[in-house]
Specification:
This protein is an alpha/beta fold and about 425 residues long. The protein folds into 2 domains: about 250 residues, Type I PLP-dependent aspartate aminotransferase-like (Major domain) (Aspartate Aminotransferase, domain 2, 3-Layer(aba) Sandwich); about 140 residues, Aspartate Aminotransferase, domain 1. The chain has 17 helices and 12 strands. A 7-stranded mixed β-sheet has the order 1-7-6-5-4-2-3, sandwiched between helices. It has a 5-stranded mixed β-sheet with strand order 8-9-12-11-10. Strand 5, helix 8 and strand 6 form a beta-alpha-beta unit. The radius of gyration is 22 Å and the shape is globular. The structure holds pyridoxal-5'-phosphate (PLP).
Length: about 425
């Protein structure tokens, strides 16, 4: 898109890729090209598309890509106001490609309270296999960031808001500190989306996130994206991408492309519903704590108000009485579905025990997830119905307040890592 439009117009009309407009009439809904392979008229054309000026698709998993995937990538580039995008098989693939591209043996990466599997990448792939050192930043105040940095730190990776603790980091400050030392800042803003957070305006270098959640919005396609400047994206597109081969399927790219057309309508509703739920639950006598940046009680509320145009659809809370009470409450919900993914129309619930099942209880609490922790991906239903559902579930559970633990084990410590097991 050459013209600058608002996010709604961009979400709907953005995304005409290099292979678009192949027909004399314009198909309003983008076509799906399921073909894995694209044939050339001559051997010379094939060679010319590799070594010369021809820009044609060749193979879906190759740098040349597939037209449907390219259309998704160009819509995303328009939405983010970014130079280039590489769509990947999943959010995990996007994060892996990005970190593996940026880090080499002997380097060091600092991560905030990222998604559990992002820590797994740091430990199992970057650490154990590539010899990259990793530090988990346990402080949520980026003023403490310099304490975690070393001479060989190459990457700072943050999730905003983080899953599942809904932490918000001061991105501008983090970028300033990192850039002064030549460190690349990678952001996973799966939970925020470009509707709630304009991360590139704050100087972030790369966004690596999941398209499976809010971006798609309907829980029917897995995908991910790397968004950055053209040189960075091209280096991965021509480097690790075809070799590791985690390409998104054209059908999933098409579903996500369709879903993106309503992102600007869905996000405000997610924001409103989550705010209503968080406000209600904060006043509930059986709830010990609510984590939502839209609440004045959230430690980064003021920062989030400055930094974000919406607080998102993810909220977490601690029910009094520990994991037993959290499990009982979750099982009693009628509308809220028990499941692991998020960011779709249906409200989805996951307890801390579910999301961090491969960590010991001590590790969970040390990380900041107390017993009784429940994460809610607040969906697009009517807020009153959702609140009534949680109220009826809370009314049915017995609470034993002696089991409520809010203090973090090891609070204030600088360096610690969870023990990773490989149950997945
Ligand atoms: C914050 C965050 N980033 C990335 C991912 C991975 O996304 P995907 O499931 O598309 O691989 C998840 C998955 O839950 C997530 O919560």
């Amino acid at each position: 898109m050459k013209e600058k439009y608002g996010p709604g117009t961009t979400a709907i009309h953005g995304g005409h890729g290099p292979y678009d407009r192949g027909l004399p009439t314009d198909s309003v809904v983008a076509p799906i090209y399921p073909s894995t392979t694209f044939a050339f008229d001559t051997v010379e054309d094939h060679q010319n598309s590799i070594f010369g000026d021809l820009v044609y698709p060749m193979y879906t998993r190759a740098a040349s890509g597939n037209p449907t995937i390219r259309i998704l990538e160009s819509k995303l580039a328009d939405l983010y106001g970014a130079e280039a995008v590489l769509a990947t098989a999943s959010g995990m693939a996007a994060i892996n490609y990005t970190l593996m591209h940026l880090l080499n043996t002997g380097d060091h990466v600092v991560m905030g309270r990222c998604y559990r599997l992002t820590h797994n990448i740091a430990q199992m792939i970057l650490g154990d296999k590539m010899g990259v050192d990793y530090t988990l930043m346990l402080s949520d105040d980026v003023k403490d960031l310099p304490k975690y940095l070393r001479d060989n730190t190459k990457v700072l990776m943050l999730d905003i808001p983080s899953n599942p603790m809904i932490t918000v980091y001061d991105l501008e400050e983090a970028v300033k500190i990192a850039h002064e030392r030549g460190i690349t800042v990678v952001l996973d803003e799966t939970c925020a989306t470009p509707i709630n957070l304009r991360a590139f305006d704050m100087g972030v270098d790369v966004i690596a996130n999941s398209l499976t959640k809010y971006m798609c919005g309907h829980g029917d396609a897995v995908g991910g994206a790397i968004i950055s400047n053209a040189n960075f994206v091209q280096a991965i597109r021509k480097g690790l991408y075809p070799r590791i081969g985690a390409a998104i399927s054209p059908f999933n790219a098409w579903l996500i492309h369709q879903g993106l057309k309503t992102l600007h309508l869905r996000m405000p509703r997610h924001n409103q519903n989550a705010q209503a739920m968080a406000t209600h639950l904060e006043g509930h006598p059986k709830v010990a704590r609510v984590y939502y940046p839209g609440l004045a009680s959230h430690p980064q509320h003021e920062l989030a108000t400055r930094m974000m145009s919406g607080f998102g659809g993810m909220m977490s809370f601690v029910v009094k009485g520990g994991d037993e009470a959290g499990t009982a409450l979750t099982n009693k919900l009628k509308l809220g579905k028990i499941g692991t993914s998020f960011g779709q129309a249906e409200t989805m619930i996951e307890t801390g025990w579910m999301s961090h099942y491969e960590w010991s209880i001590e590790d969970r609490v040390r990380f900041g997830i107390p017993p009784g922790f429940v994460r809610v991906s607040v969906g697009l239903e009517d807020a009153d119905d959702l609140i009534a559902d949680f109220d009826q579930a809370l009314a049915q559970i017995e609470i034993d307040d002696t089991k409520t633990i809010l203090e973090l084990v090891g609070a204030g410590e600088l360096e610690w890592k969870p023990t990773v097991t490989t149950m997945e």
